[in-house]
């Protein structure tokens, strides 16, 4: 069982991963199923190098896992419940404030 401090750390790690639009898009794409980095990079319109850095971050956070597949590496969500959590979070945010946009994320006190 996680302590409150551990729960906060886990949620902070999840929030940090979601704080970047590319990482959000990667997580949403992997919600649909496993994918290869080259395919993800093409689908998201980012360079493979940039995507690799984001995948490493998500892997280090424990949100995605990689598995060798021949000469390639396949990525997927570390746990299927993350996909459900993303769906629930999206639905909750839309229900609460779907008509709002976040101002400059660097501003004091924002998001």
TrEMBL record:
Residue span(s) of domain HTH arsR-type: 3-100
SMART domains tied to this protein: HTH_ARSR
Species for this entry: Streptomyces hazeniae
UniProt cross-references to InterPro entries, sorted A to Z: ArsR-like_HTH (IPR011991), HTH_ArsR_DNA-bd_dom (IPR001845), HTH_Metal-responsive_Reg (IPR052543), WH-like_DNA-bd_sf (IPR036388), WH_DNA-bd_sf (IPR036390)
PROSITE patterns linked: HTH_ARSR_2 (PS50987)
NCBIfam families listed in its UniProt record: HTH_metalloreg
The protein, known as: Metalloregulator ArsR/SmtB family transcription factor
